[in-house]
Amino acid sequence: MLKKLLENVLTLEESQKFISSFDQIGDIIIVRIPDSLLAKKKLIGETLLNEVKIAKSVFYQASAVEGDFRTRNLEILAGEDKTQTEYKEFGCKFTVDVENAFFSPRLSTERERITNLVQDDEIIVNMFAGVGMFSIMIAKKKRCTVFSIDINPVATNLCEKNIISNKLLGNIISVNGDASQIIQDRLENKSDRTLMLLPERSDEFLKSAINTTKSGGIIHYYSHVHADKKSNAAKLSEEHYMQITPVNSEILGSKIVRAVGPRYYQTVVDVKIFK
After folding, report:
1. Cα(36)–Cα(40) distance, rounded to whole angstroms?
2. What digits encode the pLDDT tens for the residues 84-94?
3. Quick one: 155 and 239 in the same domain?
């Protein structure tokens, strides 16, 4: 679709180099542009603003998501220079800040999957909650309690705003701070289900996830894995988890969540732990 919109702007050769997907989040578009096409970035932005009628802003993603706060640098290409927008998903509505708080529209299928797994009366610890997408989708449908933790105060403030914006069956307790410290201080052996949505640092926080999860509880362990064959990625993640876990674990299932690069995947392993 993106290549078609830009067919009058890019040559055939340039189109082949251009990444064929972009993120549309509410009325904001974010594009990733190869270095060889950066000279045309303003033209690309203006074309997208004109062609995508709902769009009010087009940004170029100038850096990867990075740092403890999981933020990225965005450069305005066309339209309004504002990074907050409204986003809707599966009957929930959210205010998000695409530059200053972590959010990904590409996890919608996984958010729905996790929501369907949760049972009423569960206590859930969402260790890296961002603006509260998983937490709110779960609590909207299930009578549960979710501890929604994030170290980024911007993300926490947006999470609290989003809690108010949605009618929930369950209860969400939004907490700003370091997940490991919060678990140590107040959430040990508290959780029936723990979400580890920080795949690039999952090994670092596995001990904390285990500490907060009751014996017989479930951990959703997200990680990044290189795999020559896509079909092997989930199995490799299972093997890695079993090699590093310090507790008895039963693997309930695993899957690829999304591709994040050539032969590079975000995966999830669902495990029941016994302490």
Report:
1. 9
2. 999 999 999 99
3. yes
